[in-house]
């Protein structure tokens, strides 16, 4: 008997090599194989004569082998010529040993072949290239009927996946049901066990659509797990006690006095909401949304200063080292007259320096810590950590948040994001959080102008930037990240660097993902100080970096970026009072959708508008935007699918899952006493939400 969460190695015939391949394609566990759903099917038809076939069909037919024609040149196929008694069928094989062919298809014998049939118009002959199957006449019946088609990876064949799925289904014990009979009835959902069988044995293309009850059920289960996780995490939060931070106001007063600008009313409102949360005995769990450049940093610093004047410690986590260093500089400067101790801790602080910081945190002599995520994973101990800011939170999951809440005194958590999240997505993914929004931008800003220019005009653009340099303004030049090939990436940035160096010697710097943290900082620092005027970068500069003198942003192959990503990148300029410009260079073969994306950007500077348009535009394949927006990637649900009915159906399922989760948690807080508690815990495990189960225990 095997268990659904067992390692796939327990299945017969899973060799170590195959396991590695399966792991890459599907995952480690039995359930991961079963979660790998077919995306298409083949209807393999039995044919008596070739005349009955249509080009492109998958067919199985009995033929007699006439003779073999060996491959006479590399890259030319070997042929096995057969006949159905009337017409000729050629089986073509590339790089295949003639001994093998002689063995499976001896001349003069009858064989069963199966594969995709083609007709060569020149030679007027039927052909099958690399048949899926060749066997004796008795094998006919195994090779007719409907077969699922799975996504593959190099080294894994359909046959291997099918057989693994088949075994997993055969050996699987009966899995207990977690939904009530009423719910199953209401949606005509099959049981979980049936469901797994059904999704892997589709009988028609219709069954591959999200509307099929078995698929719907999986989508629903996925939503339910997610919503349960959010509700449990929320519950966890309201049950635990945090320090009530009353604040005395003296430091905050000084901080605001020292600011070189007036806070916008949006910033003030957001801070009021945050401050109110901090005074409660329940930990804050708030998301601060605000477009790039809307001034979220100062709001978070005010919250941290409020924490410090309540005699506690605060920390801010940044997603990248560059950003952490920049926050450190900014915050140190902002708080210069407050007499508080600000430190930075990343993987780069080592040895004695690191030890001093760790000691200071434990003793409470460091009041504010800036760092990367590393500080929550490592054994960093605080004396009285009461509040944590998570900047650009899209890379920060519920699991990490749990780890965080176990540090210090159940710290209040403020997440900040510059990626506006459309409302429907909000409910799905941040349902457990309170939200503050900064809608207004600082008054001194001018709209960033955006131009769309063909890459062919590179030379002209390069000469054109001189105007900016003459005015002492700074330039970002972004090259796209080619995900499949870091090598190509590097070539591209290096090439661009050399090219620009010719025009503007000694004024160009280069920053990319392969550089060490310290190397990047040195270059960025030179840029900030004015020793360099142009920064060539891959998207490492994407989040949060703030250089007010930068006024020109050039993005190469802009069509390869997602909308929100482009908007974020563009937000690196237009931070001071000078007019800024963004040039979107596009390459060849730009699709209409990509073109439209660039136009939206030219039309608008409003991140919220752009996010809504982005959602409307996104078709099936364009998941990049989702990844960017930091929304979780679902296994089964797909809000980006092209069919509007399917999108609607999913939203409906999500709404019901939300209600269901709410009902369960209302009735059985922490799932205690819930009759399906164990099953639901299993379900969470199946969807890799193990962390969420811990929420249940801590209650
Ligand atoms: P983001 O919301 O993208 O994180 P930042 O907090 O980095 O934006 O702020 C962008 C720039 O705007 C910074 O240089 C900051 O000093 C400045 N800034 C913030 N608030 C105001 C304001 N109310 N008036 C003028 N400038 C401001
Ligand atoms: Mg920021």
Structural notes for this entry:
The chain is α/β, with parallel strands linked by helices. The chain folds into 4 domains: 40-149, Beta Barrel (OB fold (Dihydrolipoamide Acetyltransferase, E2P)); 174-239 and 645-699, no CATH class; 263-438, 3-Layer(aba) Sandwich (Rossmann fold); 449-604, Rossmann fold (3-Layer(aba) Sandwich). It is 41% helix and 18% strand. It contains 26 helices and 21 strands. Strands 11-12-10-13-14-9-15 form a 7-stranded parallel beta sheet, with helices on both faces. Helix 7 (213-239) crosses helix 24 (644-667), helix 7 runs parallel beside helix 26 (690-698) and helix 8 (250-258) runs antiparallel to helix 10 (296-308). The longest helix is centred in the N-terminal third of the chain and has 27 residues, at 213-239. The structure holds adenosine-5'-diphosphate (ADP) and magnesium ion.
Top CATH class of the largest domain: Alpha Beta
Tally of separate domains: 4
**What Rg do the Cα atoms give?**
30 Å
The largest beta-sheet arranges its strands as: 11-12-10-13-14-9-15
Low-confidence stretches are 619-630
Q: What name does the CATH topology of the largest domain carry? A: Rossmann fold
CATH architecture of the largest domain: 3-Layer(aba) Sandwich
In this structure, how is the largest beta sheet organized? 7 strands, parallel
Report the total helices.
Answer: 26
